[in-house]
Amino acid sequence: MMLGRKQLLIDGEWRDATGGQTMPVVNPATEDVIAEVAAAGSADVDAAVRAARAALSGPWGRLSARERGRLVWKLGERLMDRIDEVARLETLHNGKPIMESRHIELPMAAECLQYFAGWADKLHGETIPVKGKALVYTQREPLGVVAAIVPWNFPLLLAVWKVAPALATGNTVILKPASQTPLTALALGELAIEAGFPPGVLSIVTGSGATVGQALVDHPGIDKVAFTGDTSTGRGIMRSAADTLKHLTLELGGKSPNIVFPDADLDAAVRGATVGIFYGKGEVCAAGSRLLVDRAIKDQFLAKVAARTKKMVPGDPLDPKTRLGAIASKGQLERVLGYIEGARREGATLVAGGQRTDIGTGKGYFLQPTVFADVTPAMTIAREEIFGPVLAAIEFADVDEAIARANDSMYGLAAGVWTQDIKKAHYVASRLQAGTVWVNTYNVYDTAAPFGGYKQSGFGREMGRHALEYYTQVKTVWVDLG
């Protein structure tokens, strides 16, 4: 199925890339090219920035906060109106099950838009008592032009996590989706036009990270970069953004521990361990890729995890019954297989999966969900982010060793704790170096709850009222009353 040729959205108009280049979009479940999208260059980025800056001083900048909020709310409504169509696109270019796209992630995206729409007219300043005869007050103002650079694992949801608070607080946005998964970002642009956003408020610029992403980070007309992706790219963005002192929020990699104590509800913990690593094919920044299990229950628990894993079979992502889809690209599949082979060489014990597979068509980037036992903290699969359905099980002897091993990582995005001892749960949660800690659950999110990382998992927060701080700046006004 070919979806045709897609253009850039700049200044409210659809246009080809200045140089006329395009790039293919591949369905990872079939390996077929399903669309051609414009491959933008630096001239296109510059045009988008000019349009975004003009919109700040034009109709968008003159809207009241409440009117702005209504438009963002309407964008959420438009998304829900066309959710079946957009969810299909999400599955076609990413390979995730349609169940995840249609019933989990896109409804979350619409909810996020409407949550932040409600904040638009609720950002208050304050008056400050000072010495002398003066009235001193503060007000929150938008940063200006925001570049939102998002990855391929949750193409629309992670875009909305940035677009929603940025627009609600009065910024303009240039969205750069991953080159592998641009279709739903372009659909969001269509919905924004339908909702009535003025030209230049939301531009969609597709292309490679090396060209488009770098041009956005380097451009002096960009005031803030909001990036989700791998840690090495985040470091590069920090270095480049230093030249123009851009505001940054970085949501980067993870190697999140999922800790199971002997007093846990083990059946629930087994479900949590498998959901924690296999939801989204493991292509999740916060995936519980390190399973830390108390030595006393290790064998029993891993037997249950392996049995459950072996029942999980990849299927056609467009089938509503499928729960495990295709790895997002050929390159990512090869990367994950490389980690699996490396784990075998380093002495980890394969207890489930470990092989490429297919769904009867002989095509597609499908991989069996994989579990390794006897993993030591020094092994590569215990230290590096794989970004695939590969679970590394590590044993511990007691609570303190569990905490130490959980924190023995350059990452600090998320963690899970499984115990029925409430004191232990709070104690461990307080000691874990992670931006999110789930207790007796895993991989749950809400637009009202902030999300972000510690250490080299990045900084800044997305979702919740805390996100608003990263899209606004505070102005202090002094009025002499003497």
Structure in words:
The protein is α/β, with parallel strands linked by helices and 482 residues long. The protein contains 15 helices and 25 strands. The chain has a 7-stranded mixed sheet, sandwiched between helices. It starts with a strand and ends with a strand.
Annotation keywords:
globular, Aldehyde Dehydrogenase, Chain A, domain 1, alpha/beta, Aldehyde Dehydrogenase, Chain A, domain 2, single chain, 15 helices, 25 strands, 38% helix, 482 residues
Compact description:
By secondary structure, this protein is α/β, with parallel strands linked by helices. It contains 15 helices and 25 strands. Helix 4 packs across helix 5.
Distance between the termini: 73 Å
Q: Could you name the CATH topology of the largest domain?
A: Aldehyde Dehydrogenase, Chain A, domain 1
Give the quaternary arrangement of the chains.
single chain
> How many strands appear in the DSSP assignment?
25
CATH class placement of the largest domain: Alpha Beta
Helical fraction equals: 25-40%
CATH architecture of the largest domain: 3-Layer(aba) Sandwich
Which structural category do the helix and sheet elements fall into? Answer: alpha/beta
Q: Low-confidence segments, ≥5 residues, pLDDT <50?
A: none
Tertiary shape: globular
Question: What percent of residues are in strands?
Answer: 15-25%
By DSSP (H or I, 4+ residues per run), the number of helices equals: 15
Most strands sheet: 7 strands, mixed
Gyration radius, rounded:
23 Å
The number of distinct structural domains comes to 2
Strands in their spatial order, largest beta sheet: 15-18-19-14-13-21-22
